Amino acid sequence: MKHTLLIKDWLGSFLSLFFPHCCIVCGRPLAKGEECLCTMCNINLPRTDYHLRKDNPVEKQFWGKIPLERATSFFFYRKGSDFRRILHQLKYGGQKGIGAIMGRYMAAELLESGFFEGVDVILPVPLHKKKQQIRGYNQSEWIARGIAAVTGISIDTESVVRQKNTETQTRKSSFERWENVEGIFELHHAQSLTGKHVLIVDDVLTTGATTVECASCLAEIEGIRISILTLAMAE
């Protein structure tokens, strides 16, 4: 067994000379033990730290729209920033593993603040089945997997279904975003979430239209409590 591990370690080191894993942000080869981000880019990641602030800007974005327990986003998504590559490669580059890695990073930092306290289930915002077939995966689900790996909280991918295949939100105005997502989700197995505290997980928060529509679908469940966590928040 020990001999096999040594061979695998040697083979990994040998291959890394020719096919090095690189930082998704700056492109530098990653050192042993680094995943996705090099240490410097991890340090410089524009974190919001909103999980440390009550009534933070993310929570305020949902006030009066859904019954909210708490909400935060991990880092700022700024136009022109090199850190935008994290989301771009996750959503369009086929690198689903980035979601799990960033989910672990995020959960590990939020864990000590008590953000996950009392949460019963993680619900990643679903993609329409056609879009998921084209992409090959749901990026929000992979972020949720990383969170679950750290927190031990189970993931629910069946209770909410995306029944309408909408156009991308990227180039839409705020009003068009809200109009585009109206009625796109359908609730299944509502009884399994009765009295539960659900954490909705998504990749990036912009207007919050998609997240609100997903949460509104859950709001009719008796005793439901809802919190929201996104990997990034657009500025």
Automatic annotation (TrEMBL):
One Pfam family here: Pribosyltran
Protein name in UniProt: ComF family protein
Organism ancestry: Bacteria, Pseudomonadati, Bacteroidota, Bacteroidia, Bacteroidales
Similarity field: Belongs to the ComF/GntX family.
PANTHER family named among the record's database cross-references: DNA UTILIZATION PROTEIN YHGH
Annotated Phosphoribosyltransferase domain residues: 157-231
Source species: Bacteroides acidifaciens
Cited InterPro entries: ComF/GntX_DNA_util-trans, PRTase-like, PRTase_dom
